[in-house]
Each structure stands twice: as structure tokens, then as C-alpha cells.
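Recall from the previous lesson that a structure prediction takes nothing but the amino acid sequence as input. Here we apply that procedure to uroporphyrinogen-III C-methyltransferase from Jannaschia seohaensis. The sequence below is the only information supplied.
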Amino acid sequence: MNDLPPHDWPQLQPGWVWLCGAGPGDPGLLTLHGLNALRQADVIVYDALVGEAILDWAPQAVREYAGKRGGKPSAKQRDISLRLVDLARQGKRVLRLKGGDPFVFGRGGEEAQTLVQHGVPIRIVPGITAGIAGLAYAGIPVTHRDVNQSVTFVTGHDASGAAPTALDWEGIARGSQVIVIYMGMKHIAQIAARLIAGGRAPSEPVAVTTTATLADQRTIETTLAACADDIAAAGLEPPAIICVGRATLLRQALDWQAMAQGHPPRDIDPLDRRRPAEVG
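The prediction returns the following C-alpha cells.
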């Protein structure tokens, strides 16, 4: 690790598994601890959202794909966890590399539990989650003093693949100023209907960002009532982050990627003329 800044870098030992977040996509958002892990691993077991540019930092490592994508044939979670156990018991230096943060809707906790139950030593390396960074790349702060003092992160599907029934969508609609939805595109029409039924205004601002932080990132601005139709009309595909709330209006002023391309902000202070009563 002599190419990293001086630091007491941890060593990935044989027989250990490090569960590491690769960040939301842009290789520059990988942490230095993540890079340290990549440089030491014998085997990398990686997810669908981990890009080649990140894996290329580990030319010495054997790669094993273990991606799970909704609606497509995927490895079973139990098999992935037991494969990690098997590799560790072979004395390998194992890096389990997951998109975003392994503990934010990434099932990293389940894998860590299995490893601990089988006596395999682990290290957790947090990553930057797309629910924050992806929206930031779209010019949307998930918190803003003039908008919200809380943000709620939810998943758009449960273990069965259906829209989560254990969530109190009506309670979330009433109590959550800004809602960030992971993996929600498949059920967005149902989720939006539940939020509206819970008291959220149909005109509530919504933003949908796909392939967040990558060169082909796309973002649409819509409303709660129209979001399902607008997603379909735009031809957006997962992975996506959906943000519900007035914070999305700030993209009109803070779309820094558009400004870097020479486009002026659409509104210097979009919140000034859109009071809460107007947007629910």
C-alpha cells in the first residue's frame, strides 16, 4: 500500500472476510479503506452494481460474481453467504464488495451474521450510499434547513419482491418530510398511491435518478401523482433512487453538473416561491 498516503492501514489476513461498500458507482467515491482492501484481496465476491473500473484496482484477485438483480436469475443469498465461509476456510483473503453501503438495504448484515456464526473473522468497511450520493450528484440535498429536519430511507420491495407490507406508508406520508426510496421503480405506482392516501399531496415534488453518479446518470423531475407515468414515458430502468419531498425543488438551483456544462441555474431560490401549502 505504498501508493496510499501514510496511515496505519489494516491488513487483510488469510481466512478473513471484509464486507466492503464500493459506493454508488463513481470509482472516485470508493473509500481509501476500500482501495486498501482491493489491493490485498485474493478473491473478490462482488455485486451487480460494482463497476469494472473499481475491480480493475485488484488485478491480482480472482473475481466471483454474485449479483442479485430484481426480476433476473440471481444467486441465492444463503449460497452467497456460505460461499464466503468456504473461501475463508480455504485460507483466502476474501473481499465481499457490495454497491453503496453493505448495511443499507444491501443484506450485508445477513452475510456478516452467517460468517460470525461459522467462526469466520470479519471487518466491516462502510461505503457511501446511493440514497445520499446519487441525489447529491443530481443536485438534491437530502437535508436542507429550510425544508426538512428529517429524512426517511425505505426500500421499495420486501424479501418476496412485493411492495413492503410491513411499512406504515400512511404513517410515513404524515411524518416524513423527505422520503428516499431504494429499489422502488417496480412498485412506484402502488407506493405513490399509498403516500397520497396517507395525506401527501398529488403535486408533491418527486425526483428519480438512475445509474447515479455514473456518466450515463439520468434524472427526471415529476410529481407524486405523475411519477409512475413519467418514469415509463422516460424509459428509465433500474437501478434508481426516488426522492419524494420539497428538497427535490433545490435541483433547480443546485444542478451542478448542468452548470459545469455551461447551463445557468433555472431558479436561484426555488423554495422562496413554493411554500409548503402549495406542495403539500
